Amino acid sequence: MLQVLRLRATAMDAIRRFFAERDFVEVETPTIVPSPGLDVHLCAFEVRDDRGRAVGWLGTSPEYQMKRLLSAGAERIFQLCRSYRSGEHGRHHEREFTMLEWYRANASSEDVIVDTEELVAYVARALGAPDAGVLGSPWERITVDEAFVRHAGATVDASDEERFFRVWVERVQPELGKERPVVVTDWPPSMASLAKLNENGTADRFEAFHRGIELCNGFGELTDAKEQRRRFERDQANRRAAGRPVYPIDERFLEALEQGMPPSGGNALGVDRLLMLLSGAESIQAVMPFPEEEL
To answer: Which of 47, 62, 82, 192 has the fewest CB atoms within 10 Å distance of its CB?
Structure first.
């Protein structure tokens, strides 16, 4: 446990130094939020007060509140925080985990991809990771369709979401970033409710993979409040159809978009997964001082 504590302390210090050197401001946002996000694949923990009244949910991500800060004039912000997702467990998942999110006003998704490349290499050097030399930029960039063709032999229609993810998980993702990290871009619009669209109609979303493990999920951010509301309502309908809890829309987040959020890029990176990869551990539980199974 002491080795894990030292590993995490060194990594957190390196992350903070990386962003400080680039004029980012570290921020804090609430853990209990009025809406935990509407992604159909995520479920949240409800929070109740001492009288049993529902008061909110534990955040699955600090995204909405951080974007409100962008709308209020913040330009470069980052946050290291605990995030919570119900029903997630496995070598790469825990119900409580550490998230790093950062946002840049007047920046593109490509700018944030470069941030990611430089950050991972920076932390790897700070930890003395054995494969630090292969983590430097630039990482290969391929589209979702290119990834399917390369590793599954053909593209898969995103309208058949069950088949899309089955082929992705079984045949594509395990092959991604075997030697060096790879960035997968141009996702189906239905799989990126908070991303703006590219000129070719795909979503301006990217994910980075190393050794078949997803490290992060980033966007060129959607700033149109009306379009965001339409997507949220679609997500609510999808959750209802799937028999999942339907969370409310965060109206203050939409108000912030209406007031004006600048063109921005952002990313959410799983710190525990990064530490697992850099330390050569077999699971994220091995780099956590108190994983769920040891509570």
So the answer is: 82
